[in-house]
Design brief:
CATH architecture of the largest domain: Alpha-Beta Barrel
CATH superfamily of the largest domain: Aldolase class I
Helix content: 40-55%
Low-confidence stretches: 1-14, 341-352
Strand content: 5-15%
Largest sheet: 8 strands, parallel, barrel
CATH topology of the largest domain: TIM Barrel
Strand order of the largest sheet: 3-4-6-7-8-9-10-11
Distance between the termini: 27 Å
Mean pLDDT: 90
Shape: globular
Number of helices: 15
């Protein structure tokens, strides 16, 4: 599969279609990474509207799912206009993972994604997520079991390895492919690194370009803006990008990156009214799904991103995180909308 190195202005003859089973994605798709407490239904819908080609749920514990825990079931809530969408499952027990995937399949996603990379202590301590990087045989058995248990394509998200001395991602990729995994997303850090240091895309590209690899390989890590996305695409040949923290409170990152890839030009930063319109829709959907109090509490982690770069926003952001109800939030957003014209209040973005 040929990947464009100098992407801007290339003709259609260089374009390829990325397929995951029967799912067809555009050339070099941009994927919303699964993130616990972030990639719920409202945020996924916003990101799809802003250009994400595929979105994946926050991880769902296999143990919680087979016990029909309310929180686990709610995480599987989907809407027709967010497809293609994947449900991510995390766990360590083969039989329980099999049962959970059967339930997840019945929810109607387009694919099942397996979490083999979360470094959080509460996940790793149970033998799940990145813990499986220390037991590749078990990781592969789980993958094979899940593949047999569903008619949907199964993908996986993992890391380079356990630590600096054990970056065995090529072995992992080859074995997961043999187990039936249809696409692989690789975060360019080890389990020990967690989210510290810089992501190493060199190994991700080496996996993608290995002659025995024939499934799509997506890279993840340190894609925070158009500049970083452009540099990474020029340097490393992979099938697409998975964007996580860079999209939090910044869902238009997908639209901006796509525009740059297709034209070589940068879009201007969204105006204050444009940001408020997106944020209002985000809040409305969150309230409708979770209720006012829970939604407003969870929205607090998005405010920094939504208002990044706006001069004088610190005071308003402090008010937002202490607002007790939706009326207060609306009043504060109204005050923000009355600020000076966006062109005067937005800091100059980094240029490519």
């Amino acid at each position: 599969m040929q990947i464009m190195a100098n992407f801007a202005g290339k003709s259609s003859e260089f374009r390829v279609l990325v397929k995951i089973g029967a799912i067809e994605l555009p050339d070099y798709p941009l994927i919303l990474a699964p993130m616990e407490n972030f990639t719920d239904l409202p945020f996924r819908l916003i990101c799809r509207e802003m250009g994400a080609d595929l979105v994946i749920s926050e991880f769902i514990s296999s143990e919680g799912l087979i016990r029909l825990a309310k929180k686990s079931r709610q995480k599987m809530t989907m809407e027709a206009n967010e497809h293609p969408v994947g449900i991510q499952i995390v766990g360590h027990d083969e039989e329980h993972m099999k049962e959970a995937v059967v339930l997840a399949t019945e929810a109607g996603p387009d694919l099942i994604d397996l979490n083999f990379g979360c470094p959080a202590r509460k996940v790793v301590s149970k033998g799940s997520g990145a813990a499986l990087l220390a037991d590749i045989d078990k990781m592969v058995r789980i993958a094979a079991t899940v593949v047999r248990a569903t008619t949907l394509p199964v993908t996986a998200k993992t890391r380079l390895g356990w630590d600096e001395q054990n970056k065995n991602i090529l072995e992992i990729a080859l074995r997961l492919q043999d187990a039936g995994i249809r696409a692989l997303s690789i975060h360019g850090r080890t389990k020990v690194q967690a989210y510290k240091g810089r992501a190493d895309w060199t190994l991700i590209a080496e996996v993608r370009n290995h002659p025995a690899i024939h499934i799509p390989v997506f890279g993840n890590g340190d894609i925070t803006d158009v500049f970083s996305a452009g540099e990474i695409r020029k340097k490393y040949a992979v099938d697409g990008m998975m964007i996580g923290r860079g999209a939090v409170g910044n869902p238009w990152i997908f639209r901006e990156i796509k525009h740059y890839f297709s034209t070589g030009e940068m879009l201007p930063s969204p105006t204050i009214p444009a940001r408020l319109a997106i944020l209002n829709r985000h809040i409305e959907m969150a309230v409708a799904l979770k209720g006012e109090m829970k939604a407003l509490l969870e929205m607090r982690k998005f405010y920094t991103g939504y208002f990044k770069g706006i001069a004088g926003i610190k005071l308003y952001r402090a008010k937002l995180v202490t607002a007790g109800n939706w009326d207060e939030v609306n009043q504060i957003l109204g005050e923000i909308s009355g600020m000076a014209p966006a062109d005067d209040r937005l800091k100059q973005d980094k240029q490519i």
